Each structure stands twice: as structure tokens, then as C-alpha cells.
Amino acid sequence: MAKTSVASGMTREQSGSKSSSERLKRVGEEADVFWEGLLQEHRNGEHGNNDTMIQHLLTLQQSQPQLYTDRIIKGLIQDMILAGTNTTVLTMEWVLSALLNHPEILKKVKDEIDNHIGKDRLLD
Ligand code: HEM
User: Fold this and answer.
1) How far is the CA of 91 from the centre of ligand 1 (A)?
2) Nearest C-alpha to atom 33 of ligand 1 is from which residue?
3) Which of 4, 10, 81, 107 could form a disulfide with 14 if both were Cys (CB 3.0 to 4.6 A apart)?
4) 84 CA to middle of ligand 1, Å?
5) How far is the CA of 4 from the centre of ligand 1 (A)?
6) Ordered DSSP codes for the chain
């Protein structure tokens, strides 16, 4: 019997959709193109900043090419971005909502930022 999608009740053929593993593979391939571009930008010096994680990994690649392959570097970039994005976003969201629910603490935070950073520049 043909497999049906839980959400629609249609077979995969009927809905024209692809299996999860096929979609995952496509997302992986698209992401790889993106990381590859990022790597080439750094390799060609088009990025402007030499003090980046990718730049340091590319420098290590020159002395230890067997360890720091393009594939490993792309994996590390992906790991950092995936591990570091949603965790940080959610933490900030929770911090801000907790502060909004505790105006007296919010005031302390604002005062501390004003004292250390002032009002004429952004946090770097
Ligand atoms: C609020 C922020 C974050 C939380 C709550 C969080 C939480 C965690 C937890 C629970 C683990 C698993 C640790 C273990 O069981 O061994 C982990 C691993 C990891 N996290 Fe985070 N993380 C946060 C932010 C980040 C950021 C900003 C980055 C990178 C830019 C990052 C990169 C990683 C990596 C690479 C690992 C795997 C480490 C390993 O096993 O070698 N995380 N994180």
C-alpha cells in the first residue's frame, strides 16, 4: 500500500512532495553551496576581515591540509552557526521578557549599560 502523508492523507505521489530524507539531502546540498561560497570569499581575500574563524582555519589548512580539509572547515562553520544561533536568540528572548516583567531589574540593567557604555555608542 502506498504511504500517505499524515497531514493531508494523500500519497507522496499525489501531493508531489518528496520524502523527508530527500528534502534533507537537498537542504544539505544547498547549505554546502553557501558554506563553499563563504570559504572562497575568505580564500580570495574578499571578506575584508582577516581575524575570522574561517581565516584561521584556512591558515591551519596550509600547514595541516590532511586535518583541515574544506569539508571539515565547512562542517565546523555549520556547527557553530547551527549551535550558536537559536540558543542565543531564545536566551535573549527569555532575558528580555523576564526584564519586561521585572521593571526594577530592567532599570538596574539600563543604568549599568549607561554607566559603562554611555549613550553615544553601541555595544561592540
Ligand atoms: C544560551 C546559549 C547556549 C546554550 C544554552 C547551549 C547549550 C549547549 C548544550 C546543552 C550543549 C551540549 C553539551 C554536552 O552535553 O556535552 C552544547 C554543545 C555545543 N554548543 Fe552550545 N549552547 C549555547 C550557545 C552556543 C553558542 C553561541 C555556540 C557557538 C557559537 C555553541 C556551540 C556548541 C557546540 C559546538 C557544542 C558541541 C560541543 C561538543 O560536544 O564538543 N553553543 N551547547
Assistant:
1) 13
2) 83
3) 10
4) 7
5) 37
6) ---B-TTT--BHHHHTPPPHHHHHHHHHHHHHHHHHHHHHHHHTT-SS-S-SHHHHHHHHHHH-TTTS-HHHHHHHHHHHHHHHHHHHHHHHHHHHHHHHT-HHHHHHHHHHHHHHT-SSS---
pTM of the entire structure? 0.75
Summarize pLDDT for 40-98 with one digit per residue, the tens: 999 998 888 889 999 999 999 999 999 999 999 999 999 999 999 999 999 999 999 99
Q: Cell triple for residue 57?
A: 582555519
Q: Residues near ligand 1 with C-beta < 6 Å?
A: 79-80, 83-84, 87-88, 91
